């Protein structure tokens, strides 16, 4: 599925620095009532975000409900973010809510891949860097430059923290592609191959 290309992004960062936030906490299974990518944002962190998930009564102490984090597009978290089950709904819920990037000490491997394929940038920083960023009161604004692989914070003048990312993942994000869309960038060559193959091996193809 094609996403908006990720090049530069400036947004409010909400800090929930705890380790091992799993996909069931990101979106509980009871909130997965559809196979669609849409309609999941209300279920994001439902077990923590609401005092009563059924009535959607918001917990004022939850980080995303605090006024300073209104409209947050970046999350700052701890180690092994997105561990647990492979449910892609967790990433879909984050994306529909408006999250464009997650800064963490590390990520669950499958969740990390799901982020990249859905247009969310997973950024790995050190524990010290994350703890420094999370120590500031909200609102905390961060600026992310994916081509240059840096993230800076308005509370740390002159900061430009470098983060690693693989070349393949970087291309998918900067061009707004998933692996299928990436394959289809070669549509002309693919169609030319099949046109030629139909001539060379017509018996392989259905007459219909």
Compose a concise summary of this entry.
The chain has 208 residues and is of the alpha/beta class. It contains eight helices and nine strands. Helices cover 30% and strands 18% of the residues.
Q: How does this model look, in words?
A:
- There is one protein chain.
- It is built from eight helices and nine strands.
- The protein is of the alpha/beta class.
- The strands form two sheets. A seven-stranded mixed β-sheet has the order 6-5-4-1-7-8-9. Strands 2-3 form a two-stranded antiparallel ribbon.
- The chain is globular and about 65 Å long.
- The mean pLDDT is 93.
Strand order of the largest sheet: 6-5-4-1-7-8-9
What is the average per-residue confidence, as pLDDT, rounded to a whole number? 93
Rg, please? Answer: 20 Å
Task: Give the percentage of residues in beta strands.
Answer: 15-25%
Question: Count of DSSP helices?
Answer: 8
Q: What is the structural class?
A: alpha/beta
Shape, principal axes of CA atoms: globular
- Considering DSSP H and I runs of 4 or more, what fraction of the residues is helical? 25-40%
Order of helices and strands: EHHEEEHEHEHEEEHHH
- How many beta-strand runs? 9
Counting copies of identical and different chains, the oligomeric state is single chain
Q: Major sheet, described briefly?
A: 7 strands, mixed
How far apart are the first and last residues' alpha carbons, in Å? Answer: 29 Å
Enumerate the spans where pLDDT stays under 50 for 5 or more consecutive residues: none
Keywords:
208 residues, alpha/beta, 7-stranded mixed sheet, two-stranded antiparallel ribbon, 8 helices, 30% helix, globular
């Amino acid at each position: 599925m094609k996403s908006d290309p990720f090049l530069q992004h400036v947004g409010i960062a909400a800090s929930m620095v705890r380790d091992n936030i799993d996909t069931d906490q990101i979106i509980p299974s009871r909130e997965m009532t559809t196979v669609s990518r849409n309609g999941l944002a209300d279920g994001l962190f439902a077990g923590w975000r609401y005092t009563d998930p059924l009535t959607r009564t918001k917990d004022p102490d939850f980080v995303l409900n605090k006024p300073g984090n209104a409209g947050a597009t970046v999350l700052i978290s701890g180690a092994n973010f997105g561990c647990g089950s492979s449910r892609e709904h967790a990433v879909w819920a984050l994306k529909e809510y408006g999250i464009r990037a997650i800064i963490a000490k590390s990520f669950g491997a499958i969740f990390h891949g799901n982020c990249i394929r859905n247009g969310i940038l997973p950024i790995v920083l050190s524990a010290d860097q994350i703890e420094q960023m999370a120590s500031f009161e909200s609102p905390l604004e961060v600026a992310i430059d994916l081509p240059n692989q840096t993230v800076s914070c308005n509370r740390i003048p002159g900061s430009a923290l470098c983060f690693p990312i693989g070349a393949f993942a970087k291309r998918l994000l900067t061009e707004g592609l998933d692996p299928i869309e990436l394959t289809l960038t070669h549509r002309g060559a693919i169609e030319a191959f099949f046109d030629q193959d139909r001539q060379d091996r017509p018996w392989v193809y259905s007459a219909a």
